[in-house]
Amino acid sequence: MAFPQRFLDELIDRSDIVDVVSSYVALKKQGTNYFGLCPFHNEKTGSFSVAADKQMYYCFGCHHGGGVVNFIMEIENLSYPDAVRFLAKRANMEVPEDGGSLEESRRRQRVLALNKEAARWFYRNLARPEGAAAAAYLERRRIARKTAMNFGLGASLDGWDCLLTAMQEKGYTKTELLAAGLVVQNKQGRLYDKFRSRLMFPVIDVKGDVVAFGGRVLDKSEPKYMNTTETIVYSKRRNLYGVNLAKKTKRPNFILCEGNIDVITLHQAGFDNAVASMGTALTIEQTKILSRYTKELVLCYDNDTAGQLATQKNIELLKDSEFNVRVLQLPRRLVDGEYVKQDVDDFIKFHGAAAFEAVLGGSANQMDYRMNAVAAQYDLSDPEQKIAYSGEISRLIGAVSNAVEREVYAVRAAETAGISRQAMLMEVERARRRKRGQDRKELRRENLNTAALRQPRDRTIRYTDLRSAMAEEGIIRLLLLDGSLAEKCRGLEPEAFSSPLLGKVYARLLEAWDQGYALTAASLAGSCAPEEMGHLSSVLQKPEAPAHADRALADYIQVVRVSADKRQGETEVDPLQAAVEKFKEDKKKKGNGGKQS
Fold it and tell me: Quick one: 383 exposed, middle or buried, by C-beta within 10 A (0-12, 13-18, 19+)?
């Protein structure tokens, strides 16, 4: 929606970006700006900058940026109108609403209310005769009634429209049931329950709202698991199962599991720090949620191939993050003289909570896990495989930045392979030198193309006229430094800009000046997409000297005008004149040819 500009200006004035960001990120002042670890990507060295004077944030690592509204949109996963309302509530301001925004907000609230009502209905079914199969399943899995209540477990019934009918009786419409993902429509237009004859797992977010459901079959039918698809209140990338309970834990870490039952079993056994990603692969968005509550993660996936692949993938995702990562590998269980794999649920049932606590305490750090995984691929009694192992492990260790850690891991790898420490250390150093050489070549390749480096990182915001675009960036920077310079821009139309984005921003700034509003980058959030605000933030990071603003502005305007005239000339060629010139050129070529012969 289009909020009144005066309201937005007052909201931004009341929402100091340093105060707002500080509630999510630990900031430390360095010079005139504040720095901290970026909440939008994993990093160990803070490259996230907040400028109090510009009321902007920018990450030099992932290049996200914008004003205070953009920050709330990204960190809270909200639309622009909802981010404005979020800040208004924080600032104790009343939002001037219009019908469209009210309708969008009402739809979200109705879906959340519907999900909550559906979760209650599923839970009550456990005590009904029709839900006996789900109740029996919980008993077989040794899940206590109190645990089932804490997680809101329930049962969907064996019928095509049981939930549909029950929710319609509560006043919810078919459209709302479809929007929540609780019913499905077939080709003939008939609606039926999505979840039937399943044990139900409500997915509850950090705010305590039921945003989705998972369902497990109670027999051998397929699919074994079924989950809510993406809806207006649910994105699986941005949610973790069990996080609503785990966020209250007193334990120093979070255990990341593979499935819902694993989480429930661990909580019941006293490990209330267990969560599961919605699928085996962890996402950046989920790590942002985790970082609010812990800085240590224990990966506890199944011992099968899928679990091992997920562990490796998550280690790769987390390797440069702020998290200390450990890997818990459950020992195999002896059954009829043969060792078999076991998951978390099996381990707790057969060995108990104390045994799991012991294994948890001895879980390996991520480097130990990766080194063990590499060693497992080779027969180290074979000389050729020993050489191959040394090459792969030296590349892994060579990527470690700390020299002491490299030496410790190299010595350990040498002992594993049965070779001398000196030989392994030399291999690691050679691998490190090769990696540095490759990095330097890559850097040289990047630096060769200066024009490419000046292009926006987002390929949807490309500059077709780089020289003009650099001047256009300068005009934007100067206007945001000193709004009164807008008077000196009279006569330069936005259409002269080669970059549609910069032209749009320029027009918006001139419009704000004409209406008597202050020119701030933060006020552009409503008219720019997040990636556009990110690019604008990077533009504002470039230096601009206010002491010579008049002269610089005149130079920039001149470049933009000349470039615009040149582009206009290239597109407005007189067809008759072009034909005459071609005729002259052809005649000249023929004449030259005759003389030569």
Answer: exposed
